[in-house]
Fold Motile sperm domain-containing protein 1.
Amino acid sequence: PMQQQKRQPELVEGNLPVFVFPTELIFYADDQSTHKQVLTLYNPYEFALKFKVLCTTPNKYAVVDATGAVKPQCCVDIVIRHRDVRASYYGVIDKFRLQVSEQSQRKALGKKEIIATLLPSAKEQQQQKEEEEKRIKEHLAESVFFEQTLCQP
């Protein structure tokens, strides 16, 4: 006979939504202030969560409190420090995995992946962004102009 397992549906392994912000970290080699970043893990649930931070390249990062707990309806900040900023790592995508489980249970209830990238310079990025914005604005200005000339009787 099949044994009916009495388990709350939200506690099925691996299916619990994990709320973490941001889901992407960008470190800039030339900007010291970006070498330390914060992930915020939110716990909207009625029960406490345990968490664990795993990484594909643990040698590159220092994670302050890589394991811990979050009380119900609370959040916790996880500090991640890039500790090996070198040119050969530019553009390489590393992944962090945040695993959560219920305080009393061993298995992971849910997980979320966060990607981390090291870029050479925030200035370059800023320039690219500004050029992109300029192009978009010019494009919009043109299309608005066309619409106006078309709409006149």
